[in-house]
Input
Amino acid sequence: MRVGDAGIAVEKDATDLDRVEWRDVTAITLGGDVLTVQSPGTTLAIPVKLHAQAAARIVAEARERIPARLDDLDPSRLAAVDDHEGEVLPLERPQIAGARCKASDKLITFEKDARLCGRCGEVYAKDSVPAECLTCEAPLRA
Output
C-alpha cells in the first residue's frame, strides 16, 4: 500500500500500481473490517487488519484533503497513525499532459500550461485557475 501526496495506491509489484488520486476519490467508507476507496472506474478494498497503518493514514489524509468525500467514519475503529511506520518513497512526476482542466475542460497539452491544487492534486489550465479548488475548496493562486 502507498498513501501520500499522489493519493492511494495498491502495489501489484514494484513497478505496477493501481492508483486513485485524491481528486478522483468519490467516497471512502468503512464497512466491517474493510476500508473502501471509490472513484470512477476503480474501487480499492483495503483490509484494515492487514493494512492497519495504511487505512489509518488514508482516513487522516482524506480528512485534510477531501473531507467531504468521507462518509461518517468512526476513527476509533482504526489504528492511530504512526509517523515512524512505513517507508518514505520519492513521488514520481504526475502525468498532466492529456488531462482536462477541472474549471474549463480545456485539454492540457504541455505540463507548463497546467497548475495543480496542492491539497488534492486537481488539474487546472494556467489561464483558468479559480480562486478556490473546485474539488476540495482549498484556496488557489493563479
